[in-house]
Write a structure and sequence with these properties.
By secondary structure, the protein is mostly beta strands. 0% of the residues lie in helices and 33% in strands. The strands form 5 sheets. It has a 9-stranded mixed β-sheet, with no helix packed on it. The radius of gyration is 18 Å and the shape is globular.
Amino acid sequence: MSFYIHESSYVEDNVHIGDNTKIWHFCHVQTGAIVGENCSLGQNVNIADNVKIGNGVKIQNNVSVYRGVELEDYVFCGPSMVFTNDIAPRARYPKEKEEYKRTLVKHDATLGANCTILCGHTIGEFATIAAGAVVTHDVLPYALMAGIPARQIGWVCECGQVLKADLVCNNCKSEYKLENNVLKYRGVFDGNT
């Protein structure tokens, strides 16, 4: 095996796990799930049936990735953050699996500890959802979201740092520009723009 599964975890049949992935204590990976290469599933993570997880994804402790959720490459899921897949759940009237709403988390997005992502939405690439935020609509790429319900409070760099008003990252010196409320990467700031 080119991956690690702790002895306390349970991986069902017909699961694909990529090279160098680590599945830690008390996890459950259900039939049909695809987990990419170089991923880390922390303690008590549940991956539902037919969920697709890209490469380099880090899922911290106590996260359930339900059917209908897809995580692209390098997504970070903070401790105890929550996905949903049913907009109107009722114990008495369960849904068929095909009725679950799809949620897509684009590459390199960060979902902070204890945030909640309501189903049926897309989280844009490089977006950051603050700890405890509740996302109720689609999120733009590079957007920084906070609050209940979550509102955009700024922009973040590809390296994860909050961008200042000039849209130049103090950390890596990457420069961005806004076009029709869409943030675009311009390159590394050289002081001449």
